[in-house]
Amino acid sequence: MEKYFIYTYGCQMNVHESEKLAGMLETKGLKKAEKVDEADVIVFNTCCIRESAEQKIMGNIGAIKPLKKKNKDIIVAVCGCMSQQKDKPMLLRKKFPFINIIFGANNIEFFSDYLDEYNKEKKYLNKVIEGNYQEKEDGISFVRDNKLYAYVNIMYGCNNFCTYCIVPFVRGREVSRHPDTIYREVKDLISRGYKVITLLGQNVNSYGLDNNTGGVLFPKLLETIANFEGDFEVRFMTSHPKDISDDLIEVMARNDKISKTLHLPAQSGSNTILKSMNRNYTVESYLEKIEKIKAKMPNITLSTDIIVGFPGEGEEEYQLTKKLLSTVRYHNAFIFMYSPRRGTVAEKMENQVSIEEKHRRVNDLLKLEHEISDELFHNMVGSNQRVLVEGEVNEFLIAKAQCGKVVKIEKNESIHIGEFVYVKIVDYKSGDLIGKI
Ligand code: 5AD
Ligand code: SF4
Description:
Layout: E1 3-8, H1 12-27, E2 31-32, E3 41-46, H2 51-62, H3 65-70, E4 75-80, H4 88-95, E5 101-102, H5 111-121, E6 125-126, E7 149-153, E8 155-156, H6 167-171, E9 175-176, H7 179-191, E10 196-200, H8 218-226, E11 233-237, H9 246-254, E12 261-263, H10 271-276, H11 283-296, E13 301-308, H12 315-328, E14 332-337, H13 355-379, E15 384-393, E16 396-400, E17 406-410, E18 420-429, E19 432-436
Parallel strand pairs: 1-2, 1-3, 3-4, 4-5, 5-6, 7-10, 10-11, 12-13, 13-14, 17-19
Antiparallel strand pairs: 8-9, 15-16, 15-18, 16-17, 18-19
The structure holds 5'-deoxyadenosine and iron/sulfur cluster.
């Protein structure tokens, strides 16, 4: 075993977990392969949030077959949310008999042991286990590709059971990591020059509610980190609107090191649909929170997730979602077509929406969202922004604003990659902001 290649699908959580997989492989002495056909170990870190993700992954696993035919010694491992679904390991193995190891989303940290076991026996291993996330006691190392941005898990799993969502079935219940472990990890990242730390969890606002943290809840965790020495920013995702507290809004507003950007998935603008989704908030209470956030942080950039075509969403409900987008005015909205997931409540609901209608709504909503975000970025012209310089292209330095938007700055000898700088936004052209020091 000399080289490895990891395919990563899905959310930031998976991206970060692939950094753990890479860490374990490099600890074993393997190096990252530039191309999959140079690899001795191929890992698929999978996602099953929507049918489209699963189809893509199936296609990509199938494409490995010729490589395996040429070289039987290649080890193919499949892990993550897709393998964690009931009966999935069996189905995967039937379709792709060349898979050597299957493990789940909750025992990623034990991959190194599974590889050792496979190398001894050379027999197919199914290591998927039910339950919650398990951390390896002695910890593991990470291989982070990016030198400026780093993810840190603060909790695993989800207790919410939104009726469309498969996450609670595959990722188990909420487990918070101990604050001291998180503080240690974050301090280490800051000392190694990381500039933006993103705290990760399916629902970060319920951090500590499982009594694993000695009473530390999310606002306290966030503020403690924001008070660390160093030149950095801290962000977090994802927040459930029902759990955003006044306390959290205050903490965000009074700490400069907390990025003024918030991802707050609304999912729908119709109370009927929100109820049927089991979201536990109303459009009114959502908007109330948005008002508070905007009042305390006038420069905040907001983003959201929206699902169109949830069962029972008629034209009237859909129009309410459009209204919500026009009211809140997000800098970015991720818009998804509802995809029925096996075992969830919504899968069995009546009044499923046709695929044609879902397509129509997604395109219509994307058009609206582009108009809104375009306007918001135009409105940024004239404002001052704190941006992180990431690289350079031709005569420009490429930086990013807190919301993730690219800001081009004219090259300047005194500015270096990895620095935060203050710029005045002077233009918005071809989708990029132009900044001047
Ligand atoms: N179909 C479509 N979108 C979904 N999401 C979660 N489950 C589904 C599903 N079954 C979306 C939600 C969530 C985001 C991560 O993915 O909007 O916030
Ligand atoms: Fe899924 Fe809802 Fe949990 Fe988010 S909060 S992971 S949408 S169940």
